[in-house]
Amino acid sequence: MARLLPRRDVVVVGLGWSGSIIANELTEEGLDVVALERGPWRDTAADFNIGVAPDELRFARRRELMVSPAQVTVTTRNNASQTALPMREWGSFHPGNGVGGAGIHWAGITYRFHPTDFRLRSHLTERYGAAAIPEELSVQDWGTDWEEMEPFYDRFDYLAGISGKAGNIQGRIEEGGNPFEGPRARDYPLPPMRQPYGPTLFAEAARGLGYHVFPAPSALLSQGYVNTLGIAMGPCTYCGFCTNYGCANYSKASAQTAVLPVLMRKPNFELRTLCEVLRLRLDPSRRQVRSVIYLDSDGEEWEQPADLVVVTAFTLDNVRLMLLSGVGETYDPRTRRGTIGRNFSYQMGNGAQCYFEDKVFNTFIGGGAIGMAIDDLNNDNFDHGGLGFFGGGSVRCIPVGATPIAQRPVPPGTPRWGSAWKRATVKYYQANLNVSAESSSYSSPANHLDLDPTYTDRLGRPLLRITFDFPENDRRMSRYVTARAAEIGRAMGASQVVETVRDGHWSSVPYQSTHVVGGMIMGADPTTSAVNKYLQSWDVPNLFVVGASAFPQNSGYNPTGTVGALAFKAADAIRTRYLAAPGPLVPA
Prior knowledge:
Layout: E1 3-4, E2 8-13, H1 17-28, E3 33-36, H2 44-47, H3 56-61, E4 74-77, E5 85-86, H4 120-128, H5 146-160, E6 168-169, E7 172-173, H6 197-208, E8 213-215, E9 225-226, E10 232-233, H7 255-258, H8 260-263, E11 269-272, E12 276-282, E13 289-295, E14 301-311, H9 315-325, E15 342-345, E16 348-355, E17 372-374, E18 393-397, H10 419-428, E19 432-439, E20 448-456, E21 462-467, H11 472-491, E22 496-500, E23 517-519, E24 543-545, H12 560-578
Parallel strand pairs: 1-14, 2-3, 2-14, 3-11, 4-21, 14-24
Antiparallel strand pairs: 4-5, 6-7, 8-17, 9-10, 12-13, 13-14, 15-23, 16-19, 16-22, 17-18, 18-19, 20-21
C-alpha cells in the first residue's frame, strides 16, 4: 500500500529539458511544484568536470548516462506477424537517465521545424492532391501552426543561447542564413560557430552545385552568454566530446547549464531523485488524475496527490506511463481506432562517407553541432512531383570529433586487421569527412506502441512494445537524398564516396539516433490525437504530456528545439488559460 503524501499544486514527471522549463515557468506563477526523476542527480562540476568528461570508454562505450536495460527496456519487432523481443543492450537509440535526461548527452543541433511541418497533410493535399499521399502513410496535421509556435521557439533559443544565422527575419530573407526557414521575429542570440576546414570545404562545393548553404544552428555556444534567466555560460572549445557526453565547459546548453541553477534555488520547488513513477491514479470517472504513484530508492511506494500533473519524460516513457495508467484508448492498427501509441515514428539517418588523398581535416577537433548545412533537399523545399515519395533531409557536414576508440574509418576493400588496416587507419583518420542527411520519418498506420503481452520489467509491469519499420516512402526518400549528398562529396574532391542508405528493415541493433517520436500525438481531433495543441490530454484535462511523443511524424530535423518550444507552449497555456479556468482548453 502506497504511503499518502500531502497534496501539491503540480507534479512534474521527469526533469530533462521539458520538465525543467515547465517547472521553472510554473514556480514563477507561484505554484508549489515537485519533480519526480527516475535517475540520479547530475551536476556539471561533479559529474562532467574536465577530468572525467572526455572518457570515451565510460560514456560512449559503457553508456553511463543512459538508463540501464536491466531497469527498464522495450521489446521490438518490424510488424505484427513477428514476436517482439527485448532490447538487452541499447543500440538504435540511447534513452537518458537522471536529471537533465537525454538533453545532457545530445549533440546540440537545434533546428526549428518548417512551417509546412505543422500542417503536413493539409500542405501535401493542397499541393499534390489527396490521392498522391500513399496509403501506407498516416501523416497528420499538428493542430497548431507556425505563427503559434514561433514565439516559443524564440523563447527556447534565447534560454539556450543558440548560435546561428537567421535566414528569414519577419519575411526578409537574410544573406548567409537558411532561406527556407519560417519567418522569425529576430536573429539568433549568438553568432554562428567558427567553421573548421571540413565544413568550409563542404560549403564551397555545395554552393558550386547551386545549393543554399548556412551554418548549422547550434546549442554549443559560439561565445560567452548570459541567458534569459541570468545564467552565464561559456564558449565551446571544440573538444569533440558532445554526443554521449556531458559538457565540462558549461558551453553546451542543457537543463544543467540553462535552467537548474535558478530552479533549484526556488523555495516552491522540490526535486526527488531515484524515484520511479509506476502509474497515475485516476478518479472513478477516469477524467482526472488524483495522484502519482512512485517507488523510491529504498523500494517504498508513495502516493503524491496533485491538482495538476505534467508528464515530461522520454518519448517511450511518456507513452508507456499512459498505457499503464489506463489514460485514453490504446491504438489498434487493425481498426485504426484509439490514440495512445499511434503514429510512432523515428528518423532516417543517411549520408556519404568521403575519403581524400590530399587533405588533412584535424578530425579530432569538432563538436556535435559545428558545421555547415543545406535545406534544399528537406521537407517540400523541392518539387516531389513524380518522385514517388514525400519528405527529405537536412544535409550537412558536421565533424563531431573523431574519438580514439570508435573512429577508425577506412575505405571499402581495406583488410579488417593487420598491417594494411593499420596503414589505412593512419592515412584516413584525418583524411575523411561525412556528409550526413538527417531525414524525415513519416508515420505509417502499422507503426505503433503498445504493452508487450509477454515480457515484464523487474517490477512485473509489461514492457513497452515497439512495432516499427520504415515505410517504402522513406526508403525511396533515403535513396534520393543520399545520392545528392554523395554528389556534394565528389564535388569536394573525395577520391572515394561511400553512400549509407537506410534501405531495408529497421534494426534495433546499430545506433541510428535517439530521435524517436510519436505515440502521444497532438492534433485538433480527439479521435486521432491524444493531446490538444497545448499538450493537454483530451481525456484527462488536468494532465499535460510534453515531449517528442507529441510529434505526429518526424521532420528532417533534430527534434530538441521543437521539444523546447512545445514545453514553453504548454507552460504558457497552463499559466494564462488553465489556472484561470481548470478544464479542457480546446472543445472536444
